[in-house]
Write a structure and sequence with these properties.
The chain has about 400 residues and is mainly beta. The chain contains six helices and 26 strands. The longest helix is centred in the first third of the chain and has 11 residues.
Length: about 400
């Protein structure tokens, strides 16, 4: 039934024949099979094609047919800029000469961040062109799949190194940026997650004076507006955010208070939109000397959430337990897995429901990507080498089907 609705919606958005002489269903079968890299050119063919490709139902139909491509979007430091331009997703290019000259004039050059995209289906790497030459440092990348949008939120201004309220929205076609409504409060190193079909929650982080924040807010992607929600019980800097499965809860994991920087909390807080309240969930982060950022993956199975925590130390205690809050409304299975290497720079994310680890600075400045599946937890397999220019470890990531 859901598949039929997706197909019907995709056909409703066009008023004329998609391909003259072909029934609409057959024409749709042809168009959904065109690779993502050609979709920009397809939009220029006619109004009906542009209307079709702009509607989220087109991506849903591609997924139904098994033709959707998975993009892994990474906010990561860029290597020193070359003399040539940096290639964007598709064929767009962004000149970097101006930025190089600005960088030369500085006494100490701050890192430059970019948005890289790995097409896991086609095994290709590209970088998205950004209208202001560089994106905010340490911004959060989050995807709203149903709306077909990629968001960059908050972070530091590249010039002043101060937290910002900025929001940038990239349509699923990957060709056009726009400014979204700014957050109500400047923040960086905060928890962020897409919850439900069109909402993004943020909480915690720190302000201009490096004070840990308790405040939280929610962004309605369709309305392009932010609303304040009740604050957390504790200030949490360098915390990690994720959604809690079908219950549509928003979990803020670990973090630390202003007066205890670098000592990460073992608990978390979960916000329930229905009651507009927070509850504390205990014993979910077992490493007080390590940030959870880049060390966790959340897997939702049968309506429950499993938090996978990754460490490069040998496991000395139990590797799995259940965490819950006082009301027992929120329960979570916690599982600790040892990484395939120690002493190296690593970042763990998720792709197609699997845990994927990026290991930087190896094999002649190339990175390597490895994965472990739910059925073979702890057994890592090599995916591929990451090409030079994309091997720096990301700050945040999200994935989207297109």
């Amino acid at each position: 039934m859901i598949m039929d609705k997706s197909r019907n919606r995709a056909e409703e958005v066009v008023s004329k024949d998609l391909i003259p002489g072909l029934p609409s269903e057959l024409a749709m079968e042809c168009l959904v099979r065109v690779p993502y890299q050609h979709q920009s050119a397809m939009r220029s063919v006619c109004r009906s094609w542009k209307s079709l490709l702009s509607d989220p139902s087109f991506t849903r139909e591609r997924r139904r047919c098994g033709k959707a491509e998975l993009l892994l979007c990474l906010v990561q430091p860029l290597p020193p800029p070359p003399n040539s331009a940096t290639k964007a997703v598709g064929e767009t290019e962004t000149p970097l000469g101006v930025e190089v000259e600005k960088c030369k004039k500085r006494v100490s050059c701050t890192p430059r961040f970019g948005l890289s995209v790995y097409n896991a289906t086609m095994d290709k790497w590209n970088r998205v062109a950004f209208p202001q030459l560089q994106i905010p440092l340490f911004c959060e990348c989050v995807v709203v799949q149903d709306a077909g949008k990629i968001l960059l939120i908050g972070g530091w201004d590249p010039e002043t190194l101060q937290p910002v309220k900025d929001v940038y929205v990239l349509e699923g076609s990957g060709r056009r940026w726009r400014r979204g409504a700014p957050m109500k409060e400047s923040r960086s190193f905060f928890a962020c997650a897409s919850v439900g079909s069109a909402q993004v929650y943020v909480a915690g982080g720190h302000d201009e004076q490096k004070n840990a924040l308790r405040s939280a807010e929610v962004y309605d992607v369709e309305k392009d507006e932010w609303s304040t929600i009740p604050s957390m019980a504790e200030g949490r800097d360098e915390c990690q955010g994720f959604s809690m499965g079908t219950e549509l809860g928003f979990c803020v994991l670990s973090g630390y208070a202003t007066e205890s920087q670098g000592r990460f909390r073992t608990d978390g807080e979960v916000y329930e939109p229905r009651t507009k309240s927070w509850s504390r969930i205990e014993n979910v982060w077992p490493f007080p000397d390590t940030s959870p950022r880049g060390r966790t993956v959340v897997v939702d199975t049968r309506g429950s959430s499993r938090l996978c925590c990754f460490t490069d130390r040998e496991l000395q205690s139990q590797g799995q337990w259940e965490a819950k809050d006082n009301s027992e409304k929120w329960k979570m299975d916690v599982q600790v897995t040892q990484l395939p290497t120690s002493g190296s720079s690593v970042y763990v994310g998720s792709s197609r429901g699997e845990a994927v680890v990026m290991i930087g600075g190896r094999r002649e400045n190339k990175g390597v990507m490895m994965k472990t599946t739910e059925k073979n937890v702890g057994k890592w397999s090599h995916v591929h080498d990451i090409p030079f220019g994309f091997s720096t470890l990301p700050f945040s990531h999200a994935s989207i089907y297109v």
